[in-house]
Give the backbone structure.
Amino acid sequence: MIIPKLHYISQGNTPKEHLENIQKACTSGAELVQLNLKNISEKKYLKLAEEAREITAHFQTRLLINNNYKIAKAIKADGVYLEKTGVCPTIVRKDLYTWQLIGGEANTLQDCKTLILKDVDFISLGPFKFDLTKDNISTALGLNGYTVIMESLVTEIPIIGFGGITTEDVTKILKTGVSGIAVSTEITQDFNKITTFHQLLKASSTEEQRYTF
């Protein structure tokens, strides 16, 4: 299965805004979006996730659910993204459908190695810069951090950079060996940036990297 190189992480002041922004991202050509709702009841989350599923299915965009793997399973989302404080991927794997993706968050080389052993489908490595969308702020890695980790890491698993990434950063990040990026603010402020991100990501790899799991 091929993991898209650009992930849009939903943002909004209200759950309704998250859904509106997911719709805009899909309309603008996003191939994968992550529903990133916090502090919301299970019942309401389920309803919103179902709505997000309807939007993304219409555009044939992949949908990941942040942390809540039970909801990801219930609505048959394309997968789940587990933050560092989330449930262990090994436990989640047993509960999900075999075709559902699991992404895990990493901040260090050791985090990456642990996630590889736990059989995740992709690793989000960051933050690249200080990231306002995260509550538990880990150390910003920057280009040096990415370079050091990627040089030591031997894996076929796609590594996705995240954390305050803008269009100006993409080419430099990809040179470190990171294979894709997850973006929130830069896209939410201007959904036309999705096209720019896609062009930059494509330019970096004349041949699409294909991953087989």
Remarks:
- Residues 206-213 have pLDDT under 50 and may be disordered.
- Residues 46 and 74 are 8 Å apart (CA to CA).
